[in-house]
From TrEMBL:
Name assigned to this protein: DMT family transporter
Pfam families tied to this protein: DMT_YdcZ (PF04657)
InterPro entries found in the cross-reference section: YdcZ
Transmembrane parts of this sequence: 34-56, 68-92, 98-121, 133-151
Presence of the UniProt keyword Transport in the record: no
Organism: Luteimonas deserti
GO cellular component: plasma membrane
Keywords: Membrane, Transmembrane, Transmembrane helix
């Protein structure tokens, strides 16, 4: 296996392991302060500051303001989606638990990814086939086994 692929897999797993902790930390911040909206804002502020420091440290080039202003508005929706993700994690982890929240998010990501791939949104289409649907159903079953909504 390619070393870069292996390193990418390990990094993805480590980042994935940190996401439930992020939600728990943000929920605790919300409980100790003014609530989930403030905690989500604080999380984004700290993250923005950290990325700003990385930009400065790596001397990453900035596009000219004219180019930024010419971009279509929809390209900035990623930040909005990220804010919704952080807010929902902050709000829901105390109610659902970390494992249930992450399982449901992973299932949502799987379903959304299959739809995006199939429709070719912002990329070339990759049609959904029976094997990919089976994989998504296994993720769904796994999420249901962790969440166990029938016991609530």
């Amino acid at each position: 296996m390619n070393l870069w692929v292996l390193a990418g897999i390990v990094l993805a797993v480590v980042v994935g392991m940190a996401l439930p902790l992020q939600a728990l930390l943000n929920a605790r911040l919300g409980a100790m302060t003014a609530g989930p909206v403030f905690a989500s804002f604080g999380s984004f502020a700290v993250g923005s500051l950290a990325l700003g420091l990385v930009l400065v440290a790596t001397r990453a080039p900035w596009p000219p303001a004219r180019e930024l202003l010419a971009l279509p508005t929809w390209v900035w929706l990623g930040g909005l989606i990220g804010a919704v993700f952080v807010f929902c994690g902050t709000l829901l982890v105390p109610r659902l638990g970390a494992a249930a929240l992450i399982c449901l998010i992973v299932f949502g990501q799987m379903a959304g990814s299959l739809l995006i791939d199939h429709l070719g949104i912002l990329t070339s289409p990759r049609p959904v086939d029976a094997m990919r649907i089976c994989g998504a159903l296994l993720v769904c079953v796994g999420a249901l086994l962790v969440v166990r909504p029938w016991t609530a």
